[in-house]
Amino acid sequence: MLLAVAASGLVGAGQRWRKRRRGRGQLGAPGLAGLTLLLVAGVVGVVLLADGAGSTPDATEAIARAPTGSALAALQGVPVKGRAPKTGYSRGKFGEAWADVDHNGCDTRDDVLRRDLTGIQTRSGTRGCVVVAGMLAGPYTGKRIQFSKSAAAKVQIDHVVALSDAWQTGAQGWSDTTRLEFANDPLELLAVDGTANQDKGDGDTATWLPSQKSFRCAYVSRQVAVKLRYHLWVTPAERDAMAGVLQKCPDEQLP
User: Fold this and answer.
1) Can you tell me the distance from the alpha carbon of 109 to that of 125, in angstroms, rounded to the nearest whole number?
2) Are 254 and 221 in contact, with CB atoms under 8 Å apart?
């Protein structure tokens, strides 16, 4: 009985709506798509959505239409899967922090500081390796940050694709050597505002983006490049978030 009454009410609502539409053209496909039956806790109702609601192209369409060679087009090559369990993850799974993997005599942290800071000063007797002072134009916040060895936490080195995110999207199947290389790859590393790095935690694109909006395209394109280089996958939500950012800068190239 309840279902019969509900169905009758739905049909009546549809008839009344069609009458109101007469004189303004037939009810087309968008209009039909806007007539939605809601069944929540046994309550049946009708919601009339504006024609074209929800018609924004999805990530798959956006990626397919992207300019050749763009970061958005490159996203096509990143596999999409669900997130694997975090079981077994630790920072130590990616080897010694800031190892000298390129054998230049300097650890990775100092390599990145020398690359990303301006006006750097190095400690005497370290062959120009150890950075003791410099200025960072924080890419995540846009703030200028004075770095000094005595307040080193103000500037931190971020893994653009967080290590735990990498662990859950393919890295747990890697060799120890590959994980060490990944954790020290300059493509994967940026000197950033320490507070922003802490705020990001192990977030992916779907859960965290830099507060400086003008850097978001470069940030996401770097994540895509890292995922491609190391054959990591993205979750559906991450892929959609990446496409959403890169649609605003369709000509953005991979770093």
Assistant:
1) 18
2) yes
For 5, the 3-state DSSP assignment is: helix
105: left (phi over 0), alpha (psi -120 to 50) or beta: left
Distance CA 248, CA 221 (A): 12
Q: How many Å apart are CA 171 and CA 31, to the nearest integer? A: 47
Q: Are 62 and 74 spatial neighbours (Cβ–Cβ below 8 Å)?
A: no
Beta partners for 40? 43
Q: Whole-prediction pTM value?
A: 0.77
DSSP bridge partners of 155: 193
In whole angstroms, give the CA distance from residue 156 to residue 139.
12
Strands (E), the chain: 35-40, 43-48, 118-122, 131-137, 144-148, 155-159, 189-193
What one-letter code names the amino acid at 32? L
Q: Percent helix, strand and coil across the chain, each rounded to 5? A: 45, 15, 40
Residue carrying structure tokens 């605003």: 248
pLDDT digits (tens, 9 = 90+) for 90-125: 999 999 999 999 999 999 999 999 999 999 999 999
- pLDDT tens per residue, range 209-232: 999 999 999 999 999 999 999 999
3-state secondary structure of 246: helix
Question: Burial, 121: exposed, middle or buried (Cβ in 10 Å; 0-12, 13-18, 19+)?
Answer: middle
